[in-house]
Amino acid sequence: MVGLMASKVRLYVDHPLGEGQSVPLSRDQAHYLFGVMRMADGTVLSLINGRDGEWDAEVIEAGKKGGILMCRVQTRPLLMPPDLWLLFAPIRKERTAFIVEKAVEMGAARIIPLQTEYTNNADRIRQDKLQAHAVEAAEQCGGTFVPPVDALQKLDRVLADWPAGRQLMFCDEAMIGDPVGLPDIAGPWAIVIGPEGGFSTKERDRLRALAFAHPVSLGPRILRADTAAVAALTVWQQALGDWG
Ligand code: SAM
Predict the structure, then answer these.
(1) Which of 232, 100, 97 is nearest to 168 (CA)?
(2) Are 47 and 163 part of one and the same domain?
(3) What is the pTM assigned to this prediction?
(4) For residue 212, what pLDDT is reported?
(5) Which residues contact 211 (CB under 8 A, 6 or more apart)?
(6) Is a pLDDT exceeding 90 seen at residue 56?
(7) 118 and 63: one domain?
(8) Residue 5 falls within a domain, yes or no?
(9) Are residues 146 and 52 in the same domain?
(10) Are residues 145 and 196 in the same domain?
(11) Which mutation among 222, 224, 227, 230 tests ligand 1's pocket best, with the greatest number of atoms within 8 A of CB?
């Protein structure tokens, strides 16, 4: 729920933030701030809501079942990540959570779990839990934006509805050992990572036939899907993203 940065607690709240804005706390938030972190009236913490940047807020009322914070000053504006989606086939629960966490830290703007032919465990995907991981990651990494995590979507459907002008970095294990091959095209992008079993021949043929999909290699070794997600985000951010 809460992350630390430079010793100040950072908390995500689903509430507008602005100068003089009071923010009511849920029971869980109050328990964490006052029960676990031992905060009292007058303590200052950081708030984010994914829309209004980061604000210093002071504890005005500290109770066992709730409390009130008051926004004082904006400490950071909203910083949007590049227009980059991460599409990935869910794997085991904790590794799927890892992918969501790393996608937030690495600066993805939207996270889309994908049902592919060889996706396992898709029935165990909990969108609300994955969204909560995204919130925690934003609190922890100093982010002011929280990417939405979509419900599980079928790869076929996503490709059929693909938005005009968005490029797709198709991380294709069949390209192992080739040069990376990410084309230098500005604008909206997405990355797609396959499941443990990889893409089926049918999926690969379909992806390769799409003008917006660019097959890319992530080096000479087969990476696990969670490693591949981080590697792909790194390659893209370094070449086309906000790493300067
Ligand atoms: N079972 C597949 C095989 O043996 O070829 C490997 C699948 S890999 C564990 C999961 C996903 O990570 C792949 O579908 C691909 O998207 C990505 N991936 C892993 N290593 C890669 C590489 N060297 N180049 C491109 N993509 C890679």
Answers:
(1) 232
(2) no
(3) 0.94
(4) 98
(5) none
(6) yes
(7) no
(8) no
(9) no
(10) yes
(11) 222
